[in-house]
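Render Phosphoglycolate phosphatase in 3D.
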Amino acid sequence: MGMIAVNGKTYAVEGLLFDKDGTILDFVSMWGPWCEWLLQGYIGRLERLAPGSVSSLGLTPAFLPRLLGTVHQADGRIVDYDRNGPLAMGTLPELFGILSWHAYQAGLSWAEAKELVEACRQEAESQLAKAKPIKALPGLLPLLEAAKAAGIPMAVVTADDTEPAERHLAWMGIRHYFETVVGNDLAERGKPFPDLMELACRRLGVGCGSVAMIGDTNADMRMGRAAGAAVTIGIAPTDEAGVSDVTAGLTDADHVIAGYAEISIRGASDES
């Protein structure tokens, strides 16, 4: 048992659950380049297989942000994302379904569309494995150390699949902090339903009502509420200009923070 304090309130918790993307790791640092590689390959391959389809479908630079929920600079670099969009809240099969549907609309068969998207996925994954463009959110490591020192077990619950999630945490050198990693492939229903959190809590040996859930999307908050979490904490990190949207659509969060410095953790027997 440990204590977590946020925004002047303190909660007794037996476990700490984290979303991965945008919560543990800086979302844009990894998924920005990955999505750029994916979309570049997709547009190029689609135009070769169905000439003229890119323009006829309106897959212009102005439309691309709406495709998966990304924010682009003039040069095409992804610098932000819609916290309530497909890239942030969807599963990988859902993202690939969106791309496959557009390829089907371009005149490819459904089989050809799926093959195109799979080729793009493999290329993006290959580029990602080479570059490993991942960085932790500021203040994460001190928080993990504090939870470890307090004896609070931790887990990751993510819309990503388990194997790549494990790999990303290993790249960051922080896998050892978490007793279990639960990806979307391990449950019948993903976020915002409670299944992932319930499985994580079973693996930790604690009740859902005794854990804190931390995430950057409202799907994380709704999952936490559906499972009966002791507290749901939404994180809205600062952007490149140093500005944080402390609402960020996190309407179901008990608390919204701009960074981990706003959370403190101690053992239940420690002095305040």
